[in-house]
Amino acid sequence: MFQRFENLITPIAIFIIGIIIGIIVERVILNKLYKLAQKTKWEGDDIIIASLRGWIIFWFALAGLNASVLLLGLKSETMGYIQKFIMIFYIFSVTMVLAKIGVGFVNMYSRKAKDVLPSTSLFVNLTRIVIIGIGILVILHSLGISIAPLLTALGIGGLAVALALQDTLSNLFAGLHILMTRQIKPGDYVRLESGEEGFVVDITWRNTTIRELPNNYIIVPNSKLAQAIVKNYYMPEREMSVVIQVGVSYDSDLEKVEKVTIEVAKEVMREVPGGIPEFEPFIRYHTFGDSSINFSVILRCREFTDQYIIRHEFIKRLHKRYRQEGIVIPFPIRTIYINRSDT
Predict the structure, then answer these.
(1) Beta strands of the chain (E only): which ranges?
(2) Is the domain covering 240-325 a CATH 3.30.70.100 domain?
């Protein structure tokens, strides 16, 4: 009994030593490498080192376990099974690290090249699935399982799966089409033909998430979005015109109205956040209304949501200035003439 316990002391000690070495490597060496990586301009080294965290200890523990098993003097068949399990864990852990690195690089390059590769969970998930799929094939090959028949079976079965998952696949390819055409990207403000509007939050393999201004989410299947008529307020650029309708009394001096209105509009462009200071506002008279001469004031803002504060401030300041200048914004008035003929 004691002899058997004594034979286990060395393997257990080696296993524990492996864990301790792993802890030292991760806590000391990896932390120093991370500090050095933060000083470099390239983000890739930060991604690689961050992806290794937690797995260094696991790998050294597996190495200690493998060395411990060799000292136990087990039967060759049992030893073979244990080493195969250890190898599977090694391949699986390396696959997960590579998947994390791949996802990190996809996110990094999508941030740098937003117009070419938008940052969406669709690309992230596809990258993760491809790397994990390759890792599974490597594990099967290392276990002596032939991959060729499996791929053939998957190819034949893929037809049945494609028919069963027709809606899912149509959403997947519609999502890829939306991203490849770059007409809709995360962060854009869009309005659907059905009336819903908001910021595009994410484009996944199945649907697109749109956040409304009241902070509600609209979930749209990618296939529906690809077929819909969509107005993108961030294309071809984020800047947009803000058109405000105004009416003044028929007794007004229109030259003075134009001068005063443009002065107020320029003031709003300069002072209100979201305005374009270098833009020259202008007005265009267009209608003889029932009780007023109507015109449009054209201003400009940096993006869609800025128009609300621009309108708010312009209306307040224009109303105040009109009162100071004696310019009247009339109430709706309709004059009725009654023809009284003698009977």
Answers:
(1) 189-192, 197-203, 207-211, 217-221, 230-232, 240-248, 282-288, 293-301
(2) yes
The C-alpha atoms of residue 92 and residue 117 are separated, in whole angstroms, by 29
What gap in Å lies between CA 192 and CA 129, rounded to an integer? 31
Distance CA 277, CA 288 (A): 31
Angle at 299 between CA 297 and CA 303, to 5 degrees: 140
pTM more than 0.70: no
Q: Determine the Cα–Cα distance for residues 155 and 170; give it in Å rounded to an integer.
A: 19
Show the tokens assigned to 202. Answer: 């994410």
Which of these, 327, 194, 190, lies nearest to 263 by C-alpha position?
A: 327
H/E element holding 155? Answer: helix 147-164
> For the domain with range 151-234, which CATH number is right: 1.10.10.10, 1.10.1660.10, 1.10.3090.10, 2.30.30.60?
2.30.30.60
Domains 151-234 and 240-325 alike in fold: no
In a 3-state reduction of DSSP, which class is residue 209? strand
How far is CA 57 from its chain centroid? 33
Span 7-17, pLDDT tens digits: 677 778 888 88
- C-alpha angle 6-12-18 in degrees, rounded to nearest 5: 150
- Map out the domains of the chain as residue ranges: 2-150, 151-234, 240-325
Residues in a beta bridge with 191: 197, 231
What are the pLDDT digits (tens) for 53-81?
Answer: 888 888 888 888 888 877 777 777 777 78
Tell the burial category of 197 from Cβ atoms under 10 Å away from its Cβ (0-12, 13-18, 19+): middle
Closest CA to 329 of 252, 234, 214: 252
